[in-house]
Here is the input.
Amino acid sequence: MNQRTLPRLTMLVALSVASLLLIDKFMPQVGADDKAQAPTLGPASSVTLENEDAESLTLIVADKRLAWGDSPQKRLYSAGYVHIGKALSALLKGDSFIEENEALQGELQAAQQALMEAFKSVQERIEGLTPEDSEFEAISKEGQSLLQQRDRLIQQASVAKATLGAEQVERAYRELVDAINVVADRLEIDLVHRFIPTDDPFEVQPGPGAFQAAMLQIRLRSVLRYPEDIDITSEVLDELGIE
Here is the structure.
């Protein structure tokens, strides 16, 4: 199929859908009370459309979806959108995540307190000593070792917090996807896209990187216009038990 043919076939699909919506124009006129018994088109196994260049397109039903070919890519799929940032933020504030963060913080604070007490002991023992004293060198080395332990603790704390944060984000994401699948199955939605509502304010901190941060906010908003009814964020939040 060449590049000229594709737009024409796409137009044929649109015209076929429009023709189905305008079937009333070809029906006998009936009163409002008799509309439920008005004649309908079909059932038909297929509908073939042809343009002025004799290019044809046959519409069929495949897997309960309007299709114009055998491959899954030649089907119309229903779609929905979810603002996942709102849901993820709420999930990460859950009790289990908070408890994990508090437990890690408690461990790090305990290690820090132990180092502070060791430093205090070194300071007390070296106070009043001079380099000529026999104990001075050993206590100094002990202090240097504690400084190295402090540096390692800072690095370990940073790694531990980042690792826990990454694990929590992934768990929250998996929980969100599970909820989206439940809602999508219930509403018979095929495709669910993540998006940021265009009306949401930009999350930009003042500073040298403000411009780049603002541009990132624009790039993240992949949908510029959409019917509000296909935003299923509220349904997903209800499924997750988030207000």
Helices lie at 5-21, 84-92, 95-126, 136-187, 210-220, 233-240. The chain has two domains: 5-76, 84-193. The radius of gyration is 33 Å. The first helix runs from residue 5 to 21.
